[in-house]
Write a structure and sequence with these properties.
By secondary structure, this protein is mainly alpha-helical. The chain has one domain. The chain has helices spanning 10-13, 27-49, 74-101, 107-141, 156-189; strands at residues 53-59, 62-68. Strands 1-2 form a two-stranded antiparallel sheet. Strand 1 and strand 2 (62-68) form a beta hairpin. Helix 4 packs antiparallel against helix 5 (156-189). The longest helix is centred in the middle third of the chain and has 35 residues, at 107-141.
Length: 193
């Protein structure tokens, strides 16, 4: 009679527990992208805050000096606050990424936290960019239906600073999307096949 013992497979006898796959390590790119997020947040805040301008405006037929500042619009104040939070977040997560490069056993756990918080920061940046962009568009084009005149023909510097700041914040939101994709791909590459 034939033996009921199965022949041993060399793959399964070499180790008793399967090893955890290493996956692809993209933490260096993560650090670079987080630094870019910090730079974009900082530039967007500085450009928005330095866009103050004072011009002569006719008010009931009388020329009056009227300033234009980001503080006069709640949307721009929210924009500056949101991008400041994004800058602080990027500093903290850049330092965390740098510390994890030397401690590989913490990478997967930290990646899950990064994905969660990156999505929240993306929502904050995107909402602030959209809100500020809407106000800037009304300043550029006006709104004839409600009688809001365009102001960018008078406050040229203020509008250029606002538009530039919003464009840089849009770049920051794209960087945040790339960070989310990178973290998700890194976790996916660690799943055993």
């Amino acid at each position: 009679m034939a033996s009921t013992d199965k022949p041993s497979d060399p793959e399964y006898t070499s180790s008793s527990t399967p090893s955890v796959p290493e996956g692809v390590d993209y933490f260096k790119f993560d650090v670079i992208l987080r630094f870019l997020l910090f730079a974009a947040s900082l530039v967007a805040v500085v450009v928005m805050v330095t866009g103050n301008e004072t011009e002569l405006v006719l008010y009931q037929g009388i020329p009056v000096l009227q300033p234009a500042k980001f503080r006069y619009s709640p949307a721009f104040v929210y924009f500056v606050a949101a991008l400041s939070v994004s800058g602080l977040y990027s500093i903290i997560t850049t330092l965390a990424s740098l510390s994890v490069v030397n401690k590989p056993h913490l990478k997967t756990k930290l990646l899950l936290h990064f994905i969660f918080w990156d999505v929240i920061i993306l929502g904050i940046i995107a909402s602030a960019t959209g809100t500020a962009g809407g106000v800037a568009y009304v300043g550029l084009k006006g709104n004839k239906h409600v009688g809001w005149p365009k102001i960018c023909n008078v406050y040229d510097k203020f509008c250029r600073h606002s538009g530039g700041s919003i464009a840089v914040a849009l770049f920051g939101s794209i960087v945040t999307v790339l960070l989310i994709w990178l973290s998700a791909y890194t976790i996916h590459s660690r799943i055993p096949k």
